[in-house]
Amino acid sequence: MTQRKTYYGGFHESLESENTELVEDLKDKVGALKSLSIEIGDEVRSHHSLLNGLDDNVDSAGGLLGASLRRVKDLGRAGHNKWMCYMLIFILFVFFVIYLVTKFF
After folding, report:
1. Residues 22-59: pLDDT tens digits?
2. Residue 27's Cα: distance from chain center in Å?
3. Could you give the angle at the alpha carbon of 46 between the alpha carbons of 42 and 52, nearest 5°?
4. Which residues neighbour 76 within 8 Å (Cβ) at sequence distance 6 or greater?
5. pTM of the complete model
């Protein structure tokens, strides 16, 4: 009977030792996941503030573009067709230059 107790006692100690090692490994992994989730949260907050700034910049650019478009429409209604033709030629020239620069450089 004592031989069985010794066998089961050794087996039990072996299982306890293995469980202790697995618990320690699990603690390490949980700690790593916790630090990773904290870093992800910091990164998300950083990107959120950048996107808010970008949103504000796009809104202001949209306002400027809308005001410029209104001025161009007012210029077209005023009967300055010669200036509109010059502006159209200039815009086409600028787009052509941009195309050439992107194509060959």
Report:
1. 999 999 999 999 999 999 999 999 999 999 988 888 88
2. 31
3. 145
4. 84
5. 0.48
- DSSP-derived secondary structure for 31-76: HHHHHHHHHHHHHHHHHHHHHHHHHHHHHHHHHHHHHHHHHHHHHH
Contact 84, 76 (CB under 8 A): yes
Query: Token pair for residue 14?
Result: 């072996």
Angle at which helix 81-104 crosses helix 2-77, to 10 degrees, equals 140
Chain centre distance of CA 103:
29
Rounded CA-CA distance 50/54 in Å is 6
- Three-state DSSP class for residue 78: coil
pLDDT in tens, 61-79: 888 888 888 887 887 777 6
Q: Is 43 within 8 Å of 35 (Cβ atoms)? A: no
